[in-house]
From TrEMBL:
It comes from the Eukaryota. The keyword Repeat applies. This is Uncharacterized protein. Pfam families: WD40 (PF00400). SUPFAM superfamilies: WD40 repeat-like (SSF50978). Coiled coil: none annotated. It comes from Reticulomyxa filosa. InterPro entries: WD40/YVTN_repeat-like_dom_sf, WD40_PAC1, WD40_repeat_CS, WD40_repeat_dom_sf, WD40_rpt. PROSITE patterns: WD_REPEATS_1, WD_REPEATS_2, WD_REPEATS_REGION. WD repeats lie at residues 78-119, 120-161. Keywords: Repeat, WD repeat.
Amino acid sequence: MTTTANEKENTAPQLVRYLSIIECPFWTDRQKNKQSEEQMETILQNWLRIVNIKQGWIYDLDKIVTKYAKHFQLLKVLRGHQSEIRKVRISPDGRKVLSASHDGTIRLWDIVSGVQIQIFEGHSDWVLVAEFSPYGDIIASGSSDKTIRLWDVKTGKELMILRGHLYPVWCVNFSPDGNNI
């Protein structure tokens, strides 16, 4: 399969449109303007060119992106947060969605029905990250309030607060066995 010149020419604009639709976490309303879309398109065009030149085995990456990006569709909108959403994660069993927001909450949703199952409240500032444990029974969240909090998925209760960070907590991860964070 070969990529036509027209397909290659349209790849970056398609990616920009897609990224605009999904609203990347760092792309706020204030930054959404024609100039930032043009900058993103320039970056993507350059990146696609570099990948095509330096990585011969991915010579048709732009064709792959063009082929599959046009088939993405909106399946559901989950409403509830009062501010920007920083992180979204799917549970290990694939049945729940977790969202962390600048409104200071973490929300748990049923992936099929879209119904909100639980709200986890306790952080005093933006929630920047939330992750499921490997077994999906515990959630760890990090915040601008400089804490990590552990939550019981079933009850919604806060299990523990880990203090001591000097700066906002941007990232949390569980070890593969779930025993360490």
